[in-house]
Structure formats: structure tokens, C-alpha cells
Amino acid sequence: MAAAVANGCVDTSVVNSRNKEECNGKEKKLLNGKINNHRNGYLNSKNTSNGVNKSRLDEEGPRIIPKMDWSEYDTMRGSFEKCSLLTAVLTNLGLYILMFLGFVNQILFKPNVATEKNREGYAPLYDPFEQFFSRYVYRRVKHCFNRPICSAPGAEVILKERCSDDHNWTFRFTGSKRRCINLGSYNYLGFAEGEGGSTHADVAAATRHFGLAMCSSRAELGDTALHRELEHTTAKFLGVESAIVVGMGFATNTLALPGLLGPGALALSDANNHASLILGLRLARATVRVFRHNDVRHLEQLARAALAEGKWRKIVIVVEGVYSMEGSICPLAALVALKKRLGLQLYLDEAHSIGALGPRGRGVTDYAGVDPNDVDVLMGTFTKSFGAAGGYIAGSARLTAWVRAQGHAHTYAHAMAPAVAQQIVCAMRALDAPAGRARIAALRDNTHYFRNRLREMGVVTFGHHDSPVVPMLVYTFSKMAATVERLTDSGIAAVGVGFPATPLNQARIRFCLCASHSRAQLDACLAGVRRAAAELGLRYSRRA
Amino acid sequence: MILVDMFDMAGWWTLIVSLQVIIISAYYFWSKKKSKDDDPLSKGVPTNWKPLPIVEYDVAVEEPPLMGKIDENVLNVGATSFLCLHKEESIMNGALKALDKYGVGSCGPRGFYGTIDVHLDLEERLAKFLEVDETCVYSYGFSTIASAIPSYAKRRDIVFADECVWFAIQKGLDASRSTVRYFKHNNADDLENMLAEALSKKELNPRRRAFLVIESIYYNTGEMCPLKRLVQLARQYKLRILLDESLTIGVVGKYGRGITELLDIPRGEIDLIVGSLEHSFATVGGFCAGTNFIVEHQRLSGLGYCFSASLPPMLTQAAINALDIIEERPNIIEELNIVSKKLNGALSKLKYFRFRGDEISPIKHIYLNKEDLTDRLKHSYLRNIANYCLEKGVALAVAAYLRDVEVNCPEPSIRLAASRKLTDENISLICSLLDEAYEKVGPKPELQAI
């Protein structure tokens, strides 16, 4: 029951999650060249359907579909420890004070940049609250964001220091640089190396061979052998038939979803889905219903209600593998079982999970022991684990043909830069070598180590134990800024996130772990966090 | 007396308010209870619904030609590298040096350690080059304008746009959810009528934001917009102008600063200029340029800017080096303009084709001179012509459109892109090949147009 206490919730899922740890967590065994530490049944699960033997939808005529028995599945939402009432009240109070001071500030000082020239009599360009928030609330913590770096975003990063003489309206560079341990970039497997990078020779050769850019869309004159090789490699890596790649990760969602869904389709979308998914669904003109974050029971309720309406052409569940702000992992096995029972489709965005999860780095399908062919649309990005840029849509050959013909990217958006494509191919190949698998194991090791130490420290962290994204809750806006400042002083580059990316009273610090962090580096980070936590009183956790 | 009156008043009001409270809360509880237990599927009411698969039927995808480096073995007049900067060795070397220093990806959005010094450098240089306050760099050309429009135009606003705007603008307008009015292509009179009508119907009023979205040279037609007249109209009716200068920055004007330089329009008249690094700069990405007041807003609310990983540093460095070359040698702009003009002269002599495109525009659209064919047949005819030309060593791009999704789908065409290094022989070769191909191949009806 150690896992149960650690996860902060005792329910039926405990047994499952413990099983998984036993099956997935034997790190050292990975290095002997055998892939023997994922769930049994994964490799020959081509025809079984994760617990549901036969879809009832094959039967003709009206039929009755029973509810899911969730006790069979791991449906843990992730650890989301609630803060005490006092903290909540103080956080809100702090925010109101901040707003009030901003309001007074706005009345007293009108900055130059806030006025528009030659546009008298025009409707105001911006919403007044948005303006107020960005000028008088966000500006106070502006120095914590958009910090320029001048090195590769590897395990360490060099920050270009800047300061402000006018209360963060403008910045100037001081000229000094600071070397920090990088807990901010999405460089999970450490492929974003600078000097001496393992893939640079190949990338340089490909750039010389194919040029820097194709200056044309894939459908016109932008298709090269390299792009096709990349698509082939991606499909093979994921264990599906075929894939299509797009030059920008954000655009993958926004340009592919409108082709896949249309009016008459219903999207059941997780409450914490990324902006690109939301925009893609909006462009697709699909009806969207939102279910509570990672809550399969709520999802089932919505899906059954939609099913009973009987008017939707198709119903698609839209989820992410790892949620970048919450650090939680979607309960994929449960979702697949639900989708099979009700005959829904599943669109899985693996932006943060591909490469970073699962014993073989194949993402959340690998982690949950689900056959990738059971997921209708696999989407992911190359920005994170592979140290490149762009994204992919993968699945059956029919699917990718459809996305090519109906999605917008293939026809209109320019082809991916050859250098980027080559980097991805090299990274994928490297992952299948023993050294690559060691990276995956190292990432998992680092994640567990870091999360455990943070928990011992008594700070509140969100999400699942295996997720390399570790959000640490600080609740108030000002504590977020103060923590980031203190961490920077101790040589740690971490990201602070606040409203509007999170709810108003749930500002957080987000750590992204990397396979190339050494234990010493992590210890240094933990020491820094401990100092900041002691100084600012961040030990909110009430778990024993 | 007054007290009694007040009591009477208060009594009435209390009664009404409390009645409302009771009704509303009763309704609330009742509806909530119903929705919770409402699961007809488990109550034994059978369902007849059958889901459709996510891909409803098989589609055939046209196989695009497989290319190598632009312009390596063939004469490539489809890729939009107008200034031939993809050939410059200095750009390649600069980019590879950046590769050694920064690696490939930036591994983060601009807000979260994805801002690398080269990005700031490029933004500063672009701002200086275009003589504006500020620019912000996006990581993909398509997403630039598609994110810029919805960060200003919102649900209650009204947008006037040319009917031939390219697809990214259409998607931007979709995402903004504003009321969109399309006016006839390059027809300022039509716009004026529309504006006058909107004004009389009070659709244009001082509380509602109004925008004019245009392209300086239209990607879909190759024609230049009558910007002077449009600016005048915009000022008269208080519209803000969002101008897509993807095809004019680095292409027209004495120093390549775009249409505002060419037509001598003060840059302040245009609210937001959107440019692309994917054409004349021969790399990847796009940018927005304007005053601080306008551009700063994008950094917090341009979705494609905030939520996407930043442009890979080596490609950013390539854009900086390309800008170096444009600034050092403004004569390459002139060379390009001469080629564009020559191309117009040569294309007008084609036997079987019409063409469209401004004299100074680097983009020309070539249409079949056959009115009796359907669009799909025309497309496959052109595709065959392009294949024939590719065999003979000239790569042409048949403009790819999503026929069912475009607001106003253009006629099928071959999109010709002029480039600085096209010689007279090249031009006459293209023209003769086009006419030759027309005679040799016919349309294949089984080919599906995409």
C-alpha cells in the first residue's frame, strides 16, 4: 500500500497502479538488450481488445449497452491535492489586492506605449480587462517569462541576464550571462544538444543535400526522399501503418482536425486540452463537450448521453497523453475499452508523451500496454523528446491518405525543413539502440527521484508518478515570481506558469526533467527548491 | 407616512424577488436531478445508433513529384525562392554554424526558455529593415496570419476581406468567429458600396472593431491590391488594415521593403504587416510587424506564437543572413523585378494559355485557354502538363487547393514563381515547353483533383 499512500488516493486503482510499477519499473533490466519489462500481452495484443471481448456494435438492430465496470481499469486521474481553505482564501485575497493596486496604478499612470497614434474615433482595439491584466498585473512578473538564452537548451542552459529600469515596461541586457541547470525546456531525452551533438553530422549533411527549406508545400514541389523516409520511420517507430508529418507541432492539430471532423461530429474533449486542440476543433466546426480532466466516469456519462441522442455522425474522444500543465497521464487502457464498447473514435495527442513514456519510448500506448492500432488517430510532436520541430499524424494508411487529401497542411503549409526532418530520423534511430534505451531509463529514473524528493520536502506536486512534467503548486501569482527569481539565483532555470494558462489561484512552477541530468545536478536543483520553499513557505502538502 | 410607503414598496419587491428565487431554484434542482439520472442506455432503452469510422471512405491522393534540393537538376519555377537565396553559400554556412552552437530544435515556446538570442536578433533586424517599432517572429508561415487575425478580431467584430485571399487568411477569419464580408477581388468600388451599406445599417459603429484584411500581392492570383485607394477607404470608414505582405517583402520596393515602399505609403497607415520568411528569405517561419501597441499584444495572445515551439535557431540564423544579403545588395531586388516583367512579356505570347499576374509580381498564374472543361479536368490536364515538363527538366507547380474547403476556389492553374536567376533562355524554354506539352498530353478524367 505504499503506492496508495504516495499517490494520495486509496481506491481500486491502487492495485493496478502497483502492478504497473512492478511491470514497468524494473529499470536496470532494460540494458541487457531484451525488451522484457513492459506489460505482458502487449506484443500479442493485435487482436484482443483490452478486456472487451466483442463489440456489441457488431450486432444488428437495437441493442442495450451496459455501463463500464471501472474497477477493472487503472482510472487514476493523477494526484491533485487540494489546498487548505486558508490558502485558497489568501490566494484570492492576494489576487484582489494585486488587481486593486493595478487599478489604482492605471488611474494614476498612463504609459506612452498604451496610446495609439492616428486612430482617433476607432473602436478600441483591445478588450479593457485584457489590457488591464497584461499591463498592470502580468507586467509585474514579466521578467519571469520570455527569458532569452544563448545556448542550446540542453541539460544546462546559459541565460542572458537582463534588467529593467522602468518596472518591467522595457528590458535591457546587462551583458552578463548565467549558467543554469535547465528544468524548463521540453528536452526529455536530451537530444537538444549543442556542441558535439550526436546527430549534427547527419543533419549538416542532409542540409547540404536538400537545402535549408523547400519553399513549397508538400503537395506541390516540397516532397523529398527525406520526408518520405521520415514518415516511414515515424510509422515504424509507432508501430502503425503510416504517418504524415507537418512542419510545426501546433499546426499539426489545427490543420489536421478540420479535415478529420466536420459539422455533425461531436468531440468529447478533456478540460485541460492544449490550445491547439481547442483551436483545431473550433476550425473543424465540430460540436465540443468538455469532460472533467482525466475523469473517465464523467466521459462515459457524456458519451452515453450523446449516444442516446443518436444524431451525431461520429463521436470522437480528444485527449492528450501527458498534460503539460498538470503533469498527469491519460488512463489510456480505460479510454480504449470505453471507446470500443460504445463505438467511439479516439484522437490522442502525444505531444509530451512520445519518446518520454513507456519502456521503449513509444509514448502512452507503450506505457499503458495498448496496441497503437487501437487508437484511431495518433498525433504527436517532434519538438519535445526528439529535439527538433514539427508534428505527425499516424494511424492506418486510410487515415493518413485522408489527412493528406482533406487536412490543410499537406496542401498549403510549406514542407518541413530538411535539417529538422533529418534530426528526427536520427533521434528515432538512436532510440532503438541500447544507448537510446538507456536515455529512456535515465529519464524515468530522474523523474522518480525528483518527484520522490519533492514529495519528501512537503511541497504539493500534481500529476502521475511517471510523468516527466512535474508541476509544483505555489498558488499565488507573486509567490510564483518570487520562486522563479530565487531558483534563478541558485542557478536553476524553471518555468513559472500562472493565469491565463492555469486557473487564477493555481499558479505553479513547472519542472521538465531530462535524461541527461546527472544526479548531482538534480540534487543541486532540489537544494535550490528546498531553500526557496523554506523561505517562501511553499510546503503546502498536508499528506503524512 | 413615509415609513409605511417604504414598507409597502419593500413588501412588494420582496414578494417578487422571493418568488423568482423560488421558481429559479426549483427549476435548477429539478433540471439537475433529471440530467444526473438521465441515462436511457442503461434504463433498457435500446439504441440504434451506429458510429461512422473516422475515415468514411478511401481517398486517392495525388502523388507529388519527388524533389531534391531546389533547382539542383531541374529548372525549378515552382518553389517560391524568388531571390535565389537558397543558393547562397554564406547562408548555409551561417546556418550550420548555428546548428553546432544551438542544436536543431529550441525545445520550448518563446515564453519558456525558447527565446534564443538569434530570435531577438532577427526581430530587431527585421524591425530596422522594415522601419517599424517592433516585429515578432512565428515558427511557421501558415500559422503567422492565421494566428494574427484572431488575436485582434473577435466574435462581435466585422471583417472585410478580399474574396481571393489565400487559405491561411480564410482559416484566420474562421478562427476569429467575426462577421466576414468578402468583396470582389481588387475591387475598391465594391468595397466602398459594402462599407456604405454597412454604415447605413449601423453595422459599422464606433463600438465595433472593423478590419480590412488584404494581401499586397495575392498568392492566388498574382495581382497587386490597389493599396492607396484601400487605405483611403479604411481611413474614411475607420477600418484597421491587416496586410499580408508575404509575397512583397524582399521582392518589391527599392530596398525590398514591400508594397508600402513601392507605393510610398507611410507605414503607420497599415496597422499590421504580416510577412513570411518562406518565400524570398528561403527559410521557414513568418513575422508580424507594426507599432509596439499592436505587436506587443501578439506575444500574449497570438496562439501560434504563445503555444508553439519557437523557430529552430539554425533557420532563424539563415533568415538573419538572408537579411544581410538583401541589405547589402539591394540590386538583387531590381534583378528580380526585371525578370518578373520579362516573364509577363513572354507569357502573353503563349498560344494555349491565359495568365494572370501583375507586371512586378513574382507569382504568375497560368490558366488553360479552354472554357469547356470542368475544374477537375482542367486540374488533371495541368497536372499532366506539369509532369511532361518535369520530364523535360522544368519543375512547375500546379496550384494545390482544397476545392471543397476554399471560400471561393480559384480556377486550376500552374503557379509560376519568378526568380532572380532566370535567364532569357530559361523563360523562352518554359514558354515553348508549355505550348508543346499542351499539344502532347490530354486530361485524364480518372485523376482526382486535390
Automatic annotation (TrEMBL), chain A:
<feature type="transmembrane region" description="Helical">
    <location>
        <begin position="85"/>
        <end position="109"/>
    </location>
</feature>
<keyword id="KW-0472">Membrane</keyword>
<dbReference type="GO" id="GO:0004758">
    <property type="term" value="F:serine C-palmitoyltransferase activity"/>
</dbReference>
<dbReference type="GO" id="GO:0030170">
    <property type="term" value="F:pyridoxal phosphate binding"/>
</dbReference>
<keyword id="KW-0808">Transferase</keyword>
<dbReference type="Pfam" id="PF00155">
    <property type="entry name" value="Aminotran_1_2"/>
</dbReference>
<dbReference type="GO" id="GO:0046512">
    <property type="term" value="P:sphingosine biosynthetic process"/>
</dbReference>
<dbReference type="InterPro" id="IPR015424">
    <property type="entry name" value="PyrdxlP-dep_Trfase"/>
</dbReference>
<dbReference type="InterPro" id="IPR001917">
    <property type="entry name" value="Aminotrans_II_pyridoxalP_BS"/>
</dbReference>
<dbReference type="InterPro" id="IPR015421">
    <property type="entry name" value="PyrdxlP-dep_Trfase_major"/>
</dbReference>
<keyword id="KW-1133">Transmembrane helix</keyword>
<dbReference type="InterPro" id="IPR015422">
    <property type="entry name" value="PyrdxlP-dep_Trfase_small"/>
</dbReference>
<protein>
    <recommendedName>
        <fullName>serine C-palmitoyltransferase</fullName>
        <ecNumber>2.3.1.50</ecNumber>
    </recommendedName>
</protein>
<dbReference type="GO" id="GO:0016020">
    <property type="term" value="C:membrane"/>
</dbReference>
<comment type="similarity">
    <text>Belongs to the class-II pyridoxal-phosphate-dependent aminotransferase family.</text>
</comment>
<dbReference type="InterPro" id="IPR050087">
    <property type="entry name" value="AON_synthase_class-II"/>
</dbReference>
<dbReference type="InterPro" id="IPR004839">
    <property type="entry name" value="Aminotransferase_I/II_large"/>
</dbReference>
<dbReference type="GO" id="GO:0046513">
    <property type="term" value="P:ceramide biosynthetic process"/>
</dbReference>
<keyword id="KW-0012">Acyltransferase</keyword>
<dbReference type="GO" id="GO:0017059">
    <property type="term" value="C:serine palmitoyltransferase complex"/>
</dbReference>
<keyword id="KW-0663">Pyridoxal phosphate</keyword>
<keyword id="KW-0812">Transmembrane</keyword>
TrEMBL record, chain B:
<keyword id="KW-0012">Acyltransferase</keyword>
<dbReference type="Pfam" id="PF00155">
    <property type="entry name" value="Aminotran_1_2"/>
</dbReference>
<dbReference type="GO" id="GO:0046513">
    <property type="term" value="P:ceramide biosynthetic process"/>
</dbReference>
<dbReference type="GO" id="GO:0016020">
    <property type="term" value="C:membrane"/>
</dbReference>
<keyword id="KW-0746">Sphingolipid metabolism</keyword>
<dbReference type="GO" id="GO:0005783">
    <property type="term" value="C:endoplasmic reticulum"/>
</dbReference>
<dbReference type="GO" id="GO:0046512">
    <property type="term" value="P:sphingosine biosynthetic process"/>
</dbReference>
<comment type="similarity">
    <text>Belongs to the class-II pyridoxal-phosphate-dependent aminotransferase family.</text>
</comment>
<keyword id="KW-1133">Transmembrane helix</keyword>
<keyword id="KW-0808">Transferase</keyword>
<comment type="pathway">
    <text>Sphingolipid metabolism.</text>
</comment>
<keyword id="KW-0472">Membrane</keyword>
<keyword id="KW-0443">Lipid metabolism</keyword>
<protein>
    <recommendedName>
        <fullName>Serine palmitoyltransferase 1</fullName>
        <ecNumber>2.3.1.50</ecNumber>
    </recommendedName>
</protein>
<comment type="pathway">
    <text>Lipid metabolism; sphingolipid metabolism.</text>
</comment>
<keyword id="KW-0663">Pyridoxal phosphate</keyword>
<dbReference type="GO" id="GO:0004758">
    <property type="term" value="F:serine C-palmitoyltransferase activity"/>
</dbReference>
<dbReference type="InterPro" id="IPR050087">
    <property type="entry name" value="AON_synthase_class-II"/>
</dbReference>
<dbReference type="GO" id="GO:0030170">
    <property type="term" value="F:pyridoxal phosphate binding"/>
</dbReference>
<dbReference type="InterPro" id="IPR015424">
    <property type="entry name" value="PyrdxlP-dep_Trfase"/>
</dbReference>
<dbReference type="InterPro" id="IPR015422">
    <property type="entry name" value="PyrdxlP-dep_Trfase_small"/>
</dbReference>
<feature type="transmembrane region" description="Helical">
    <location>
        <begin position="12"/>
        <end position="30"/>
    </location>
</feature>
